[in-house]
What does this fold into?
Amino acid sequence: MYNLVMKDLKLGINPLFFLVPVVLGALMLIPGWLYFIVLLYFCWITVPNTFGQFRSQNDLMFTSMMPVTKTDMVKARVLVIVILEMLHMLMAIIFGIINIRLYGEIPNVFFGPYPGFWGLCFVMYAVFNVFFIPMYYKTAYKFGGAALAGIFGAMVFAGLAQWIGIQNSYVSDMFNGSGVHNVALQASLMIAGIVIFIGLTMIAYRIAVKRFHKVEIQ
It folds into this structure.
């Protein structure tokens, strides 16, 4: 499986998409912006282009000729998705820390780049994964509908979360007010987001494996 992951990272993915998280992560330096957008660029740009490249390379047929199981094929591809997501997340967090250093005294209308917000971003990616991955592995070839479903789910979650954060004073206080100075609260929110991300991604993986075993590779 390690070799499958490295195949995708070295041969399947355009090196440009390892730089995209750095460039887009810098958008975290815009003061008072809607920072969910920075992470959504993964869904909007990286996924469609990467999976389009896999298809143009006839990667499915090539990989199926290797001495690997379908389960390993799914596991490796899910790991690649997670690696790219974490790369986007890491760069956004780094620039988010710089943002706090620069604009810490400026009040945020939208969620500020604090640990609780990153917990929500993990959940947003989990929602994307639970839609995209199982739908993609209905065919393991057509990705457009799966990507649209994942993007829609992620955007709805982000929109609802942000709307609640603006409308509800208690939630606003947790993510932008006095709650940002509560280390235990912020850590709990981020850890909860990570746990949800792992859980939903594992569910997506298991469903994808079951579906992929029914696919006849031609």
